[in-house]
Amino acid sequence: MLATVGGVLAGLLSLPLARALKKKFSPSAVALKNYDPTQHKWLMCVDVDRCIGCGLCADACKTENQVPEEAHYFRTWVERYIIRKPAPGADAVRGEVLVDSPNGGRGGFPPTTVPREDILKSFFVPKLCNLCEASPCTQVCPVGATFDAPDGAVLVDPAYCIGCGFCIQACPYGCRFLNPKTNTAEKCTLCYHRIVLGLKPACVEICPTQARVFGDVKNPVEDDPLQAFVRNHKVHTLKPHLGTSPRLLYANLDKEVR
Q: What is the pTM of this model?
């Protein structure tokens, strides 16, 4: 049914996609009239080597999407990975892996307690919805509130969501939460209300090092940074063995990242 949406507004009131776009993700009917999701295919890429752990992305996301202020609610967050040197005489080439994300990385990270001489490598990894092509969350939703939009976004229609939490349990990336005020499931929507207007997601806009690259596969621009990113990097996805086919691509991703 969703594949027949072309033009969006034509069948708007009769489709879950239409309700979600109009009520939740679009700032105005004008935006919908000018946006056809069948003519776009959004993709997000992250260069781990560029992330400095400043947490501005998590902060911007909270503000832009009115995410609850409590520390454990995030649509996007940043994790710090610290890989210790292996113990003397050990066969392994890499030691213990420590992962933390205090307050989602908002405000940056405090100094680690691991002595500098014991650290083999440390880095930061932004996390968000993996935009799965075979999304487990959509498969388990009993009422069709979670659905795949034709443009590659995975969205939630709050008018249909019954707060059962099945999608939260099914997400292998821990990217969903139940909003305590609305009792409905939430996650990253790529700032859908922004991209239908031709704007970038807030996390991409705010990143000071351009660690996040966002673009439209169907509509490449001149000197397209998205095309350059995929062309110039060996890209990976998280947990590829699960067969979810994420559309969130990472460059310079260490095997320890979960």
A: 0.86
